[in-house]
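Model: You mentioned two targets. I'll fold them one after the other.
Researcher: Yes, keep them separate.
Model: Target one:
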Amino acid sequence: MINVKNLNQSFGKKTVLDSINLDIHRNEICALVGRNGAGKSTFINSLLGLLPVKQGEILINGIAVNKKNEEWKRAIAYLPEKFMLYPMLTGLENMTFFAEAVTKTANRERIEQVLRSVSLWDDRHEQVKKYSKGMLQRLGLAITLYQDSSLLILDEPTSGIDPLGRKEILDVLHSLQDKTILLSSHHLDEIKQICTHVAYLENRKMRKYKVDEFLQTHNLGGISS
């Protein structure tokens, strides 16, 4: 699904990512972990084509990430840490707006399906300004799931949410079938619950581990988002 080969990214004279190599295979759930400033956002923005690749190569489903051929975009759905919603619109109206932005004509059955999957169908007629932080995150996730992409890139999907809200998000992610997920996170408990692998970014380098291997070989006390 994701193949990163010798990726280098820098800003001016500052190297942020140095010869990054990473393979994420189909149906893996991989946590992207590192300290503040380690380069996680730079890495995600590179995967999304928001930052041009200065050196190296990124392949999504075997297709190079570049502006010449954007077929790779069809495989990806992205949920940013702060999803911009319209507070005066209802959950259903927000869902419909973003669905039409993707497919021009919203599929009502699909909208109901994804809203039910995140337990928001009963709250669909409430204005988003009345939603809790957890509900807002679940609505953002529903919008991300609408296009049914095979690869999900999620940037801190449980950030700032209470434990119950976090559990609701994790339950949804755990229930997804035939999805490959790259999940930026600093919550070790959720990494243990749903992830199969960890991509650890430190000192501009990255190494991929199985979750148990990562937990056994690192002192995790200082890791943050």
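Model: Target two:
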Amino acid sequence: LTVRAEGSTSGYSRDLFPHWITQSGACDTRETVLKRDGSNVVTNSSCAATSGSWYSEYDGATWTAASDVDIDHMVPLAEAWTSGASGWSTAQRQTFANDLSQPQLIAVTDNVNQSKSDRDPAEWMPPRAGYHCMYARMWVDVKHHYNLSVDSAEKAKLQSVLNGC
């Protein structure tokens, strides 16, 4: 990973990362991840999850209402923007925001995801310490795949976590 100072959020907007696009039939990215990450997920004709359960790796909680679950962008959109995505095309940002092949999207407890906000590992780690190694590996995978930079504090935290794995 390339280490460099974090860029500016100037010009950033979530709208520059078209997300929750149609993946298949009536299913958008959010619904696809809910089905992938859940257990016994039942959907209606518009692909909305009507029942199932979701285990949040971040905090160890299990939910039975899809409304209690957020789909986290492992590397938040604003973090991607300040790490290199500001120079991407809209199509590249859309791919990043809807990527089902990298460990970029994960179903987690909604308020835990909201507490994470746009912070990197130097500023936030999942409350469940047993998930820190996996979280750090996933973060590095996504940053590497998309050629996004890390700042020095982020690198130091990732190295510290990974050295303990």
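Researcher: Noted. Anything on target two?
Model: The radius of gyration is 16 Å.
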